Amino acid sequence: MRRTAEKVFSIIEVAEQDGKWGYSDINFSEEQTSDLPESDARSMWRQVSPVAIAGSGLAAAGSDEDDRRVFYQDRDRSPVGTAYDPSLPDGRWVGYRVFTADIGAPSADVGSALAVTGQIGDLRVYYFSDGRLDGGRRLVRLEEQSQEWTYAVCDDAPEGSSISPLAAITTGQGEFVYYLDGRSHVVEASYRGVEGWAVCDVTSAVEGCPTPSSLSRLTAAGCGTDTRFVYFLDENDRPVQLEHTIVDGTKKNPEGNVEWLARSLSVYGAPAAAAGSRPAVVLTAEDHPQLYYLDADHMVVAVGFNGRGWDVNHVGVDADGGAGAPRAAAGASLAAVACADRSASQVYYLGAAYPGAGPGEGDNNLIELRGAGDDWTSRSLGAELDLPDVATGVPSPITAICTSGPRVYYTSEQ
Q1: In whole angstroms, what separates CA 133 from the centre of its chain?
Q2: Rounded Cα distance, 127 and 153, in Å
Q3: Each residue of 47-63: pLDDT tens digit?
Q4: Consecutive H or E run containing 381
Q5: pTM for the structure as a whole
């Protein structure tokens, strides 16, 4: 009987540094044997952190100084955090933490998403437990303080759905996490320390709020005193915005008030999305939201508020002077960042197979779309850099951050 080689999943970082793109494997480090002449030296790989598991969630955080943290799940379904220290002479991934073994945090549920918010040294990481310790698919919060970590389980909120996404944000009022429960309602949870958790069923609380599709992914952004934006797809796969805003006081109501508003972006011409596709949002320098998602043809669409109204741009179709960017693969994840002055965005996704490819062939090419307004260009980072294949059997999530430049992370299947 022929024994099939075991697949190994690792996390790949693709980054632009000083105008040049490159990549590295954060789970394995390539070394050369030192006891052989340089001409005879052979490359070898050394494992430096636990490998990921198929379907692992993925989240990242970074700083302008290039400090970086990446979070995923290992084969024992423990959340893992890895750290990159740019202050070292050669700059390298310096260590990792296995949260289940190290602090007793619950193991993650199969396919649980991950979300991170906060600053390096004061991060919050969220995921869903597998129920072995708490009897359900409960929200778990990891908290970093002075390089030490603790965890808390949210027993007060509904269990997350079996495929629920997660999105976490921070405003002047605190931190908030969003997910979908078993009824496909948007749930907001906020940890208040000794006061416990504050939980809100946003779908039920907001007048006229559409019910998300059972396949919907969601994304969120926060800014200012307490402005929050949450995006999801309704039951007809139309993009919806929930906005939590502070209304200034008036003579009749000097204290003002706080309210949620639900807005279907299809009213402004936004097309329906590919079922189950994951949207991404960035904020402009004016803190206006810019939403990116895949339409029914798996092309990237941008929907943004310009301060007066909403603009809809078919950036995937119109990119490269009208030649069009590559189509996204079915089930592809999508990530977006706005670097530097936030005047332009970079969007990343998995390109579709080339014409004539067999099942599972060709859906492994990382694509970048870069631009603003009507001016967008695309490039195939997968082909240019000969990147390791993106895991497609269980589609890899893609996440992106901006430190000294854009950095993209995905799970590779080797």
Answers
A1: 27
A2: 10
A3: 889 999 988 999 999 99
A4: helix 381-385
A5: 0.92
Which residue has tokens 């999943």?
A: 9
Which neighbouring-strand residues pair with 31? 44
**199 φ, ψ (degrees, to nearest 5):** -125, 135
Amino acid in position 298: H
> Quick one: which of 142, 86, 92 has its CA closest to 117?
142
Dist. CA 273–CA 240, nearest whole Å: 11
Contact by Cβ (8 Å): 349, 398:
yes
- Asked if residues 182 and 161 have their Cβ atoms less than 8 Å apart, the reply is yes
Give the whole-angstrom CA distance, residue 85 versus residue 73. 21
The region that residue 174 occupies, defined by phi over 0 for left and psi between -120 and 50 for alpha, beta otherwise, is left
Q: What is the DSSP letter of 213?
A: P
- Angstrom distance (rounded) from CA 328 to CA 237: 17
Amino acid at 145: Q
Residue 371 backbone class (left: φ over 0; alpha: ψ -120 to 50; beta: rest): left
Residues 168 and 176: their CA atoms lie apart, in Å, by 6
Q: Which two tokens stand for residue 398?
A: 């893609």
| Contact partners, residue 347, CB within 8 Å, separation at least 6 | 280, 292, 300, 315, 334, 335, 336, 368, 369, 370
Q: Chain centroid to CA 403: how far?
A: 15
Residue 199 near residue 187, CB atoms below 8 Å: yes
- Residue type, position 371, single letter: G
Q: Which class for 379: exposed (0-12), middle (13-18), buried (19 or more C-beta within 10 A)?
A: middle
pLDDT of residue 394: 83
pLDDT in tens, 76-122: 999 999 999 998 877 788 889 999 999 999 999 988 999 999 999 99
- Residue type for position 132: R
Q: What sign results for the dihedral spanned by CA atoms 386, 384, 68, 94? A: positive
Q: In this structure, are strands 9-17 and 406-413 parallel, antiparallel, or unpaired?
A: antiparallel
| 160 DSSP 8-state letter | B
